[in-house]
């Protein structure tokens, strides 16, 4: 068990503040008065109960003698420096990490025994376990929902939900979502299946409650199709059976704040998130139009001229995504013809009536004439370049320009016999990373594999990593923070 740093140590450090030198810059070559400390990187990520070794090289102007100095390694949780933990009193760090999972700052202090002068270096430390941070993969195995977890150090945990809870999460998996990122609300993972939706604890995947318990008036069945999150964490919307529900996450002190009754109106919301900036809007598959929430009632956006009319699209949304106020969407008309649209959301104000309303500004409409577009099973767009549209079909991923409609690159570096199940770009930490699920289509255990592909500036993809035969037919990805 790690010992708490004693008050006397802190008193000594306070007295030495005037003589101490601290650096958070280049750790390959950090001059600290007459010492040079090398070997400490800018950040570390390590699994709980695994070893952490940091050999340090120290040189001095007049020669370095290890016995002439005292050493201290300690950590504290980010934004909680008043509760530190001691790691080691040795020159080189070589420990088993026992602290709980989370984000930490780590400090290394070297003190001259004769002069009392101290020199310090800080770095970031992230401690994870099998479930605490990484990619959640929802797949279908023999018709059942199956969750595989790949943490940030690439440890794979198969059958994660079933191992913890002793049963499967349900039949006919639909999606996996990370909700509740408000200041006072608890982050939760929701697994959605044809049987309903389950809420689980993100840190260990244990079952907490049925998702229906988080509603004042829950739909039946309570099957989440899409989560739409405000980029500032103020509130969020969920889409279930084409209906929209919302809850406020700001200025509340309820960890499990409930969702309000469904937003009223005659609409069928497409299961795609258009909610990134402050004002939420959606696409109505029934009315073939863009709509928005006007104080609890869905209303149509204003008509507009240009490449298309957002109030009368005459097409079904096949895929849609928003990045702040920018929209990209793949549409299919009544004749089965596909096209991609680029639009921008704008909030305008009516000073006479002290009201605001949302407009969708058409930017362009580009026909998709590729012969394989009708075979596409999934689409993805990265926030890094929103004019690259990726789609998967058979065993290939194609990148095309939403400006010209031209194909820019094709990737087919998957194992023979596998086909693309699902693709999605990382929207948490690495927007250049495309997650890809492939399988042989059987839906059996270990029939699916996961690839991490990196997007280049020209739209091409190259493999970062892959994990063979760890799941079934992939349905959805979500990053567990």
Model description:
It comes from Butyricimonas faecihominis. Keywords: Signal. InterPro entries: PKD-like (IPR032183), Quinoprotein_ADH-like_sf (IPR011047). It is built from two helices and 37 strands. The chain is mainly β and 481 residues long. Among the domains are: 122 residues, Immunoglobulin-like; 109 residues, YVTN repeat-like/Quinoprotein amine dehydrogenase (Methylamine Dehydrogenase, Chain H), CATH 2.130.10. Strands 1, 4, 7, 8, 10 and 11 form a six-stranded mixed β-sheet that branches. Strand 13 and strand 14 form a beta hairpin. The radius of gyration is 26 Å and the shape is globular. It starts with 6 loop residues before the first helix and ends with a strand. The N terminus is likely disordered.
């Amino acid at each position: 068990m790690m010992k708490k740093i004693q008050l006397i140590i802190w008193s000594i450090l306070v007295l030495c503040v005037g003589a101490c030198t601290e650096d958070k810059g280049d750790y390959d070559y950090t001059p600290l008065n007459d010492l040079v400390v090398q070997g400490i990187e800018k950040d570390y990520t390590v699994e709980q109960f695994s070893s952490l070794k940091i050999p340090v090289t120290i040189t001095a102007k007049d020669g370095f003698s290890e016995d002439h100095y005292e050493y201290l390694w300690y950590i504290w949780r980010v934004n909680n420096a008043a509760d530190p933990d001691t790691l080691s009193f040795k020159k080189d760090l070589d420990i088993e990490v026992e602290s709980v999972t989370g984000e930490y700052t780590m400090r290394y202090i070297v003190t001259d025994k004769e002069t009392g002068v101290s020199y310090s270096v800080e770095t970031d430390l992230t401690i994870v376990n099998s479930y605490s941070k990484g990619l959640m993969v929802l797949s279908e195995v023999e018709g059942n929902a199956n969750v595989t977890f790949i943490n940030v150090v690439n440890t794979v945990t198969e059958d994660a939900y079933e191992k913890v809870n002793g049963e499967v999460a349900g039949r006919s998996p639909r999606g996996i979502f990370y909700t509740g990122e408000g200041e006072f609300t608890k982050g939760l993972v929701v697994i959605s299946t044809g049987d309903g939706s389950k809420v689980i604890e993100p840190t260990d995947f244990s079952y907490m409650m049925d998702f229906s318990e988080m509603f004042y008036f829950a739909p039946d069945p309570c099957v989440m199709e899409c989560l739409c999150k405000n980029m500032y964490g103020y509130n969020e919307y969920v889409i279930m059976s084409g209906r929209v529900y919302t809850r406020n996450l700001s200025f509340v002190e309820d960890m499990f704040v409930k969702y309000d009754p469904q937003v009223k109106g005659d609409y069928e919301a497409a299961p795609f998130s258009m909610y990134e900036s402050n004002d939420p809007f959606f696409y109505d598959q029934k009315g073939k139009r863009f709509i928005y929430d006007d104080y609890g009632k869905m209303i149509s956006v204003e008509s507009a001229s240009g490449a298309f009319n957002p109030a009368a699209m005459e097409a079904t949304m096949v895929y849609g995504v928003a990045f702040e106020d920018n929209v990209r969407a793949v549409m299919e008309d009544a004749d089965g013809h596909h096209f991609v649209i680029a639009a921008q959301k704008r909030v305008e104000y009516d000073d006479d009536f002290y009201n605001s309303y949302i407009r969708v500004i058409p930017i362009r409409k580009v026909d998709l004439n590729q012969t394989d577009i009708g075979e596409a099973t999934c689409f993805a767009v990265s926030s890094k370049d929103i004019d690259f549209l990726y789609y998967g079909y058979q065993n290939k991923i194609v990148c095309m320009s939403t400006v010209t409609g031209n194909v820019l690159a094709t990737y087919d570096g998957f194992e023979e016999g596998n086909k693309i199940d699902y693709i999605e770009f990382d929207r948490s930490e690495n927007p250049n990373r495309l997650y890809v699920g492939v399988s042989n289509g059987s839906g059996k255990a270990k029939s699916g594999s996961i690839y991490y592909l990196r997007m280049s500036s020209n739209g091409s993809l190259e493999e970062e990593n892959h994990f063979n035969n760890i799941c079934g037919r992939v349905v959805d990805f979500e990053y567990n923070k």
